[in-house]
Amino acid sequence: MVREIAVFVGDNGSTAALAEPGRVIVYQRQQGKWKPVREILFSLERSLGMPEVRRQLAAMLEALGNCRVFVARTVSGLLYKELEQAGFSIWEFAGRPSSFLEYILVQEEFTVRQPATLQTVIPASMETEPGCYQVSLKEIQQSGSGLTSKQVLQPLLNGNFYCVEVVCSHIPPWLEAECACGRFDCKVERLAEGIKLIIKKQICG
Asked: pLDDT at residue 74 above 80?
């Protein structure tokens, strides 16, 4: 059961990008209400190099203790990778924590109870023909659902498919790494409104 959710916020109390200065507030659900139980200041000093960035992030993760759900307005690159490797469920939301904490709790607990049906709660794709899908990450992220690109695409990429076409403003770092390692055949097309990434695999199980 999810007992705590960590939210990265800026001075205005709304979520901020993890690369910006801010603080992590850990919320705990007590008697049906979300209450802040601890706070961690966090501001990356990128000018000091990657080893220092990793050290700062490791210190923040240690301070989070057993909390394994993390929310920010955006999380990308090395920061996403480090959180993922530490076992965090990562969400992206814009707004104040009170507007999304309960939603995240429900989704996290549903996923724990029924992991095989995760794809059914993500209206992320349209099957154009058997084994071929179209996904607009831009529309999903603009909808305010809080779903990350990984939560949207992994159920498709881990299943049986021939082709997945993804429209996005930029290629997510984790997906770029998947394509680079040769797991999929990937082709990029430039569009007026962003990028279309065409992902294929030769054999469906």
From this structure: yes
Q: What is the mean pLDDT of residues 151-168?
A: 82
Question: Is pLDDT of 175 > 90?
Answer: no
For residue 91, the tally of other CB atoms under 10 A from its CB is 23
Which residue carries 């930029």 as its tokens?
A: 170
CB 171 within 8 A of CB 178: no
Q: Is 31 left (phi over 0), alpha (psi -120 to 50) or beta?
A: left
Residue 31, classed as helix, strand or coil, is coil
Per the DSSP assignment, residues forming a β-bridge with 35 are 28
Distance CA(55)–CA(60), nearest Å, equals 9
- Please check whether residue 89 is in contact with residue 68, taking contact to mean a CB–CB distance below 8 angstroms: yes
Contacts (Cβ under 8 Å, ≥6 apart) of 131: 160, 161, 162, 163, 204
Whether pTM > 0.70 for this model: the answer is no
Please check whether residue 153 is in contact with residue 176, taking contact to mean a CB–CB distance below 8 angstroms. Answer: no
CA-nearest of 183, 182, 130 to 161 is 130
Unique residue bearing structure tokens 């759900």: 69
